[in-house]
Design goal:
- This protein is α/β, with parallel strands linked by helices.
- About 40% of the residues lie in helices and about 10% in strands.
- It folds into two domains: about 180 residues, Rossmann fold (3-Layer(aba) Sandwich); about 190 residues, Response regulator (Rossmann fold, 3-Layer(aba) Sandwich), CATH 3.40.50.
- It contains 13 helices and twelve strands.
- The strands form three sheets. It has a six-stranded parallel beta sheet with strand order 2-1-3-4-5-11, with helices on both faces. Strands 7-6-8-9 form a four-stranded parallel beta sheet, with helices on both faces.
- Helix 9 links the parallel strand 8 and strand 9.
- The longest helix has 19 residues.
Length: about 375
């Protein structure tokens, strides 16, 4: 790949301008900043994804790569297997090899300051992908979903499954008292706090009036977080809770707030092994989720998991590519939020997308009709 004109600015004034922009918070010299933007085929976009152990991130990486290549860009896509030093090294290598733009879904949102400083020094725009990068001025744009609303939707789906809300999210008048447990995502992922806060704000009225009780009493994010969003870790915690609080499986437990499908499946395995039933109809507690992973979509279709949140990663990839293209053309991406996402050094301009609650009754309309999954994939629980 030919290097961008950004690195070969020839006039003293242009060099001064590029350096000045690179040093300003939130402003990065755009590729082609000397007046003639290079063609897409002359540019390389480095794409750093956190892991291939999650179906969600595999789909994200593929969608971003495919759309960038369709637009004509060269792509250097790397997965870091949830290992922070590996991701740091991958980003350093992308910069060394001449990446012109970086799209980064971080493992730890606080661990990339050094790498992004190097990117800024070289005038490379950085787009944070779905996970905000914290503690650095050198992140230029953020593409994500409305993460607080995702948390609201997770709790809403739990309340629907428990019978307090109907399919439209309206109160049913149910006064029954029910017992739940809470799980949150990884504490080093900036999204976790937004998800958890949205969920807890939604559950608060029910906890306050006594209709809901958290059986273990564990209600703070520190107590319920799941490092690296790991399903096995969630399963072990659920097993420990069942032993300590629910008589090994004989106590009343009506629902579990789960923030991600991999965590949901671990929780469900623990509940089934403890004898709560193979599905909801047989007494399995209501479990929420997120990401519409095909294995969980099948569980929802089979009446085992109650719900998930559909975040269409194709749309997220499109937004990331549009942001990259804006920088490549010497401009800046369009933001629809310039207030919410403060990374500790700056408020990062962001583009937020919408998400949807998926339950059994709308799998076809939301996931199959949109082409996200096929009917055969839903039936099998495996992506073709």
């Amino acid at each position: 790949m030919k290097r961008t004109a950004l690195r070969f600015i020839t006039t003293t004034a242009a060099i001064a301008l590029a350096v000045g922009l690179a040093g300003c918070a939130g402003q990065t010299a755009a590729p082609g900043g000397n007046g003639g933007e290079p063609a897409a085929e002359d540019l390389t976009v480095g794409v750093a994804m956190p892991t291939e152990t999650s179906e969600r991130w595999i789909n994200d990486g593929k969608a971003v790569k495919d759309q960038l290549e369709e637009a004509g860009y060269g792509v250097d896509l790397q997965y870091a297997n949830d290992d922070i030093p590996t991701q740091q090294q991958q980003i350093e290598q992308m910069i060394t090899k001449g990446a012109d733009i970086l799209i980064v879904a971080s493992i730890d949102g606080t661990a990339l300051a050094s790498q992004l400083q190097t990117a800024a020094d070289k005038g490379i725009p950085v787009i944070a992908y779905d996970r905000l990068i914290n503690g650095t001025e050198n992140v230029d744009f953020y593409v994500t979903f409305d993460n607080y609303t995702v948390g609201v939707q997770q709790a809403t789906s739990l309340l629907q499954g428990l019978g307090y809300l109907d399919a439209d999210g309206k109160e049913t008048g149910l006064a029954d008292k029910k017992v739940i447990e809470l799980f949150a995502g990884s504490p080093d992922d900036n999204n976790t706090g937004f998800f958890f806060q949205g969920a807890m704000d939604t559950l608060k009225p029910y906890l306050d009036d006594g209709r809901l009780t958290v059986g273990s009493g564990q209600t703070s994010m520190d107590q319920v977080a799941t490092l690296r969003w790991d399903g096995a870790t969630a399963q072990k915690r659920m097993e420990d809770l069942l032993t300590s609080t629910y008589g090994g499986g004989s106590g009343q437990l009506d629902g579990v707030l789960a923030p991600y499908d991999g965590i949901s499946r671990g929780i469900i395995t623990a509940l089934q092994n403890a004898g709560y039933g193979e599905n909801i109809e047989a007494g399995l507690p209501v479990v929420s989720g997120q990401d519409a992973e095909i294995a969980s979509v099948k569980l929802i279709n089979d009446g085992v998991q109650f719900a998930t949140i559909f975040k269409d990663t194709r749309k997220l990839a499109t937004q990331a590519v549009e942001a990259a293209s804006a920088y490549a053309e010497g401009g800046e991406p369009e933001a629809n939020d310039t207030e919410t996402y403060d990374n500790g050094k700056k408020v990062v301009p962001s583009f937020l997308l919408e998400s949807d609650i998926v339950v059994k009754d709308n799998i076809t309309s939301l996931l199959v009709d949109s082409g996200y999954w096929t009917e055969d994939e839903v039936a099998a629980g495996v992506a073709e």
